[in-house]
Each structure stands twice: as C-alpha cells, then as structure tokens.
Design a protein that fits this description.
Blueprint (H helix, E strand, L loop, with lengths): L2 H11 L4 H21 L5 H24 L5 H11 L8 H14 L7 H9 L6 H12 L1
Helix pairs in contact: 1-2, 2-3, 2-4, 3-4, 5-7, 6-7
C-alpha cells in the first residue's frame, strides 16, 4: 500500500471510522516527512518503519496510561490499526539464520558489529535489539 492509497482510503472512511482515518493520517505524515528528509521516493519499507515506530510509541503510552489507571480504549484501537502495517517480527531462529547469511557473505576480517548491523537493518521484521545480542554472542 502506498501513501496515496492510504490517503484515498482515509478520505472515504473519515466519517465512518475516525480512528482508522486518524491513524492513516499520522502514518502518511510520518512517511512523507521521512522521504522529504531523505530526498527520495517512497518505498513500502518506509511505511513499515514508520508504522513500527508509531506502534512502539503507542504501546509505551498505553503502558504508562495503564499504570495511572487511565482509559486506553482509543489507543488500543490505534494499535489494532497500526498492527496491519507492522511487519511480523522474526523468530529467534529466523533472526539467527539471517545473521548467519550475512556472516557467510562477509570475509572473516570484516565480521565485526559495525559491518553486520547496517546489513541487518535491511531485513524486514528483524528485532534489532535481539539481533545485536545474537551477533555479539556469535562473534565472541
């Protein structure tokens, strides 16, 4: 889905599904801001990255609201919409397999964290924190 398609959907549903329309609007803004800063065309990966970032932020906000006993129904509805755009997180086994592919492609002297981590960022659905700890354990 592109931001143009998202915009069309947003316009059609803004009266019937205001939560989804609001989330789509925020997602469109985040993606367009990113591509303007990077001065390039939009990709599906841009949407996934923006959605993941928004999902994580909203999830943290929900946790804080729950600590304070506040109502989180609207935020949880936003999370449900964002979940559609967030790529599935790879399992630890799949993450390890992706790391191994990258290590196999590198010469032994190039197998250092600063060479591996940028390549991992290109893998959709990878949990970078988990990947870093796996890479560090392999490199020891």
């Amino acid at each position: 889905m592109t931001t143009k398609e998202m915009f069309k959907e947003r316009m059609m549903i803004r009266k019937t599904n205001p939560v989804r329309a609001s989330v789509l609007g925020m997602l469109i803004d985040a993606v367009q801001k990113n591509i303007r800063e990077l001065n390039r065309e939009e990709t599906e990966d841009d949407i996934a990255k923006a959605a993941k970032k928004m999902y994580d932020q909203t999830e943290a906000t929900v946790a804080e609201y729950k600590k304070g006993g506040a109502d989180t129904a609207e935020l949880e509805a936003q999370l449900a919409v964002l979940k559609e755009f967030v790529p599935e997180t790879l399992s630890p086994e799949a993450t390890k397999a992706e790391i191994q592919k990258i290590l196999d492609a590198l010469a032994p002297e190039e197998r250092v964290l600063k060479n591996i981590m940028p390549k991992l960022k290109a893998v959709p659905g990878i949990d970078m924190k988990a990947a870093k700890s796996i890479v560090e354990s392999i490199l020891k």
